[in-house]
Amino acid sequence: DTRHITIILEGPIRYCNIFKTVDSYKHLCKEIILSSYVTEEEEKELKRIASNIVILNHDPADVDTETRLLYPPAKHLVKAKVTKKGFQQFYHMKRALPRVKTAFVLKARTDQAYSNLDIAIKLMYSNDDKVVMFPFYIRGCATCKYHGADMLFGCTTKKMMQIWLNYHPHNVANQLIEIGIWTGWMN
Q1: pLDDT tens digits, one per residue of 97-113
Q2: Are the beta carbons of 42 and 142 closer than 8 angstroms?
Q3: What whole-number distance in Å separates Cα of residue 173 and Cα of residue 177?
Q4: Shortest CA distance to 4 belongs to which of 98, 133, 122, 101?
Q5: How far apart, in whole angstroms, are the C-alpha atoms of residue 66 and residue 53?
Q6: C-alpha span between 120 and 132 (Å, rounded)
Q7: Closest Cα to residue 105, out of 19, 16, 28, 22?
Q8: Whole-number pLDDT of residue 71
Q9: DSSP letter string over 123-161?
């Protein structure tokens, strides 16, 4: 039942056609929340394609500045003024999640598109005590403890808020983004 799910698309738009992605996802959910960087023309086109889209348009410099303050990069990256790769996801999710009004939420990156989300959505509905994730890029625990997915995962909105909003100490910035996302929640 699409009335119970929101899809959050977060991050910079690259590698995929965001218009096609939004068009293929719009019928799967009550609302799509896009947290990204789009032009005025792109925003108009996205709203034309999907009446159920909410666009949170950010200034990349602001996202970078806040991310660097909250999750300082390693010393060798500070001089180069480089933000730790992927940690902007925290910025996007902290702005998107409070807007979710449905019982379930599916988080995906804007730079990836999936041809079929039906299985993930069905698994979320039938296993609301678990987090359903796309495990294509997960390092095994023998290599890297607490490495879950950052590409695509879904669960109850309550659980998603716990994952993103409650457990991120500043020292996670010395880790991979996936470990930064999952360490506190898995503990």
Answers
A1: 999 999 999 999 998 88
A2: no
A3: 8
A4: 101
A5: 25
A6: 7
A7: 28
A8: 77
A9: HHHH-TTS-EE-GGG---TTTSTT---SSEEEEEHHHHH
Q: Which residues partner with 108 through β-bridges? A: 9, 152
Decide if 117 contacts 24 (C-beta within 8 A). Answer: no
Rounded CA-CA distance 153/63 in Å is 22
- 3-class state of residue 56 by DSSP: strand
User: Considering only CA atoms, which of 4, 161, 18, 174 is closest in space to residue 90?
Assistant: 161
pLDDT tens across 54-91, in order? 999 999 999 988 888 877 766 655 555 666 678 899 89
CA 148, chain centre distance (Å): 13
pLDDT, tens only, 39-52: 999 999 999 999 99
> d(Cα 98, Cα 49) in Å, to the nearest integer?
24
Q: Say how far apart CA 35 and CA 48 lie, in whole Å.
A: 17
- Which of the 8 DSSP states describes residue 97? G
Q: What angle do CA 132, 88, 29 make, to 5 degrees?
A: 40
Are 41 and 48 in contact, with CB atoms under 8 Å apart? no
Strands (E), the chain: 5-10, 31-36, 53-57, 104-109, 132-133, 152-156
The residue assigned the tokens 């790769």 is 85
